[in-house]
Structure formats: structure tokens, C-alpha cells
Amino acid sequence: MAAMTDLAPPLGIADGLRAGEKNGGSSSDAEVLEGSMPLRAARPPLPAIRHCASVGRLDIAAEPELDIGNRISFNPPPNRCSGFLPVLRSGSCTNIGLRPSMEDEHICIDNLADHVGEVPNFQFPGAFYGVFDGHGGTDAASFVRTNILKFIVEDDYFPCRMDEAIRSAFLRADYAFADTCSLDITSGTTALAALIFGRTLFIANAGDCRAVLGKRGHAVDLSMDHKPNCISERDRIEKLGGFVYDGYLNGQLSVARAIGDWHMKGSKGSACPLSAEPDLREASLTNEDEFLIMGCDGLWDVMSSQCAVTIVRKELMVHNDPERCSQELVREALKRDSRDNLTVVVVCFSPDAPPKISIPKYKVRKRSISVEGLSFLNGFLANNP
């Protein structure tokens, strides 16, 4: 990750957006049964922010194959917009916030060919991005950041059945982390990954990070926040013998899915209230899809998906720099008193800035009235004062 860098004063483009959002808010609020923890009243200082636009080359070394279990056949759908080909560029920014230490990790690879080499049947352009929100230490987040892409590429289903390759890689990362001797396996991390495969975008999420697509100014959530209070997650937890207390899984963890945290899990392969299995989402990119925002919960605790998309789009129209967009989102989250670590990745699908959205003006039709009609109307009004 890049060295610490001081930022210039806030640009101010997002200041007007805060007035319309008193509590920030999450797009999944409707599914939450209990309220989230209240924010502190004190405003945080604006500490130095780390940001980067690329990462180093990964070592795709061979590892023993792990048995993940039965897999479901999957054929990638044909691309429906043959004229569109994404041109990928990204930027990222991190900040420690009010936490005593930084436990987030992230990865940005705009050109996957530089990291995986020649892969049969792989459609380029290809890219990989990830945000990993650690807790209980940095070991789990660092391990997943280093190994998750390697596990995807080494899977037998890569690249023909991408959803199964990604799902297997998440579980393999969880099992491999449990087998490490030099790391603290009681640490854990949420994991949000985006893999671009030609014009197809795959999103995999385990935890409360979030991926949001900017589509001509509209926010489209591509992941679900796995909070214990979420109705579907609560049902799953209780069916497996767990419970939710004050918004925490078994009274201990504020997320319902994570890699690591092996002090809360049983033996490998056994059903457990805390799951490492990701939810997967697939989308076919079109020329209306402008950018992708990936962020940890420190961002979404104080900002809605639509607010983030509006900020990024306005910023891109000014300077067309995804890295500066990620910095602005972090600045805005700090202004809104985010008290968690902050990590934001912005991925653009075009080399050009988003076009200005114009609202068509409709012509007003002029209406005329006959002399007889006008006389009738005057009589009606006179008799009905």
C-alpha cells in the first residue's frame, strides 16, 4: 500500500449533499430489524489519507488443491451489448479514522493479464479489485488480500465457470487461513471482490462491505450487507443454532459472514452460523454503466449508495480522476463523523468523463376556446361565485 500522504483541503463538491441526508443511511435499511450503534458526537480530525492507483504483481504460485464440495454447472451468458468494451482504470484511498490501528486491506489490478499470464478461454479486458475489512487484527485481511486471486485462478472451474471458481476460492481461503501456524486465526475479515471478465462483472461479497454501480447517475447495489440483524441472515443464523444479541452474532461479531474468526467456527466443512460463503452477483456491462464504487462499512455507515454515486459522478465531470474521487468520498465520510477505518475503491469503465445528463423540455401546447365556449364559461362562473 502507498505511503501516507497529506491531502489538500476538501473540494467542497459534496457539501451540499449532506443537508439532504441526516443520518447517511444504507440502502439495506429496510431489511434491518434493529438500529445500528449510534455515532459519536465528537468530530474526528482529518488525519493523513493513504491512496494508490495500482498494486504490485502477485505471485500465482501452485498450492495444494482443497476439496470444496459439489459445484453447480454454470455457463457465462452471452454479452448483449456487442458494441461496448470497457476501458478500465481505478483509484483507491484509505484512512485510519478514529480506530487505534488500520485493519483494512485492498487490491486494485486494472490489467489481469499482467498477473495471470495467458489463460485459455479468458476474455480480456480483465481486472480484479477487492476490499477486505479486518477485525481482531490484520492477519486475516492481509492473508486474503495476498491469496484470494491466486485461489480463483488455480480453481478447476476458472475461467469457464467463474461463479463457482470465486465461491470455491472464498472457502479455500477460509480453510487455508485456518491451517496457518504463524498467523492469528482468531482474527477475521469481510471480503468484497470484483472480477471483470470481458464485459461481464462478477461481484462476490461476504460481510458488510458494499459494491455500488453508477448507472447514468443512478445507484445500483450489487451486494447485500451481511448484518446479523438482516432478516435472511438472522433466519440462517438461528437455523444453525446461533443467535443475534443487540445486533451481534452470538453477542460477539457485528457481521454475519467473514473469513477467519475460527474461534467462532466448528470443524472445516461443518455448518456454522458464521459463514465464509459469499453471495455472488453477475452483471453485463453496457455503455450506461459508468463506474463501480467498492467500500467498507466505514463509508456506508454514514452515506447512502445514491449519495456516493452522486459525489463520484460530479467529481468525474470536474477532473475525471477515479483516485481523487475515492479521496473525496473518504473526506466526506470523515466530515460525517465516520468512526471506523475507511477504504474506498473507484473503478471507471470508460476513459471519458460521464456526460452531462439533460432533462428534455416539453413544449406546452396552447389551447384556444370558441366564443360560445367562453360565453358559457363566463355564465357558469357568474352563477357559481
TrEMBL record:
GO cellular component: cytoplasm; nucleus
Domain of life: Eukaryota
Classification via InterPro entries: PP2C (IPR015655), PP2C_BS (IPR000222), PPM-type-like_dom_sf (IPR036457), PPM-type_phosphatase-like_dom (IPR001932)
PROSITE patterns, alphabetized: PPM_1, PPM_2
Catalysed reactions listed for this entry: O-phospho-L-threonyl-[protein] + H2O = L-threonyl-[protein] + phosphate; O-phospho-L-seryl-[protein] + H2O = L-seryl-[protein] + phosphate
Keywords for this protein: Hydrolase, Magnesium, Manganese, Metal-binding, Protein phosphatase
Domain PPM-type phosphatase: 89-349
Coiled-coil regions listed in the entry: none
Keyword Metal-binding (UniProt): yes
Cofactor(s) required for function per UniProt: Mn(2+); Mg(2+)
GO molecular function terms listed in the Swiss-Prot or TrEMBL record: metal ion binding; protein serine/threonine phosphatase activity
EC number per UniProt: 3.1.3.16
Signal peptide limits: none
Family membership noted in the UniProt record: Belongs to the PP2C family.
Protein name: protein-serine/threonine phosphatase
Organism: Canna indica
Upper lineage: Eukaryota, Viridiplantae, Streptophyta, Embryophyta, Tracheophyta
